[in-house]
Design goal:
The strands form 2 sheets. Strands 3-2-1-4-5-6-7 form a 7-stranded parallel β-sheet. A 5-stranded parallel β-sheet has the order 9-8-10-11-12. Helix content is about 40%, strand content about 15%.
Length: about 375
């Protein structure tokens, strides 16, 4: 059984990031490979942020009479513990690796036949621990390992690389045996800035059948129904919009997120308020929902997978092109809300023809799997 390494964004703090990696591993296992996710992490950067936050708390905030909660490492581990439980139970993963030398040493000690970069925003510099790692700089002289990008994403249609990053990544991507991206804007960026033609493929989450996700949470007892909201960047405007939709549809609102954001620590009372529910609970919420409102890419994905009526609020700061590219595949652009103030509430009653969409998804799924199969045999 050939070992295939997967290099993705740091796992553990994002439902979508975890479940896309779970899906890609499952697809590879079904094809007879042994997938291993290489746990490239950004601990050093994260530790620096904690230190700077501590300094700010003891100086600037105190001068203003404010006091913010500083989470210790063990508290953060508890906050993300249910996510980590899912990773340990369902994903074959390495020890944490924090730098380029660690990656180089790991690959030297392993017998990988291929490495896949993707999915998620692996090619977005400000989200990656080291963008050159995601172009496989640490094995650039190794011609024995097949180098593939699967559904890599720049996250945006804007070019965010500096000149040095562009020049180095241009040379590194030439060493790849197969290149694919998740958005049509990614195809444009690859061609314009790298001179590289990339193939458009589905996010790994869309490669699995709905039944394969049902198996993940089939043991859950709690059943909820109504208007499910999965909102990453909350605001009073979005809250008001959700309330209006709830009233229009006559549905109660439920969510599956921590009660408080980890950044909202001005009035800290209990650590329990910050703990993320399990991945299984998150998935089941889409299945149980009667309607979904989300500003998340993967929230949109799972609304489609579970054939739910939904509204996606465009998240420009996180990258709007991801939403547009996904929804265009299924002619669902009208489900995207770019301006809440201009939303026509009559659209809530517009049906989605999931019979047509499911057929389209099946064709796209087959094409994406075929790309992966051929890339792994090069």
């Amino acid at each position: 059984m050939k070992k295939v390494a997967i290099l993705t964004q740091p796992l553990g703090k994002n439902y979508g990031g975890i479940i896309q990696n779970f899906a890609l591993q499952k697809v590879l296992k079904n094809e007879g490979y042994l997938p291993v996710t290489v746990r490239r992490d950004n601990y050093e950067k994260f530790s620096l942020r904690l230190f700077l936050s501590s300094v700010k708390n003891k100086t600037y905030n105190q001068l203003l009479g404010k006091k913010r909660k500083e989470f210790k490492r063990r508290e953060l581990d508890l906050i993300y513990s249910k996510m980590e439980d899912f990773i340990q139970k369902n994903i074959n993963i390495t020890e944490r690796i924090f730098n380029t030398d660690g990656l180089s040493n790991h690959f030297h000690s392993q017998n990988y036949s291929a490495v896949i970069v993707g999915s998620d925003q692996t090619w977005r510099p400000k989200y990656s621990p080291n963008i050159l790692n995601y172009y496989l700089d640490f094995i650039k002289s190794n011609n024995l390992i097949t180098k593939i990008s699967y559904a890599s994403s720049f996250g945006t249609d804007e070019w965010e690389y500096n000149d040095r990053e562009k020049n180095e990544c241009t040379e590194l991507i030439k060493l790849f045996d197969a290149v694919s991206v998740r958005e049509d804007s990614g195809m444009d960026l690859c061609l314009k800035h790298f001179g590289m033609k990339a193939q458009l493929v589905l996010d790994p989450t869309l490669l699995l059948e709905r039944s394969e996700y049902l198996d993940v949470f089939k043991s859950l007892i709690e059943k909820r129904a109504g208007l499910f909201t999965y909102v990453l960047d909350k605001s009073s405007i979005k809250n008001d919009f959700i309330e209006q939709v709830s009233q229009k549809l006559g549905l109660s609102i439920f969510s599956n997120q921590p009660k408080k954001s980890i950044n909202d620590v001005s009035n800290f009372h209990s650590l329990d308020d910050y703990i993320f529910p399990s991945v299984e609970d998150w998935l089941s919420s889409f299945h149980n929902a009667e309607f979904v409102i989300t500003d998340s890419f993967h929230g949109t994905v799972f609304s489609i997978i579970f054939n739910k009526p939904f509204i996606s609020i465009v998240n420009s700061e996180r990258g709007a092109s991801r939403f547009l590219s996904l929804l265009k595949l299924f002619s669902l652009e009208d489900r995207l809300v770019s301006s809440i103030d201009l939303f026509d509430f009559e659209k809530l009653n517009d049906p989605i023809d999931y019979e047509v969409i499911n057929k389209k998804l099946e064709d796209l799924r087959n094409n994406s799997k075929q790309f992966l199969k051929l890339a792994l045999t090069k």
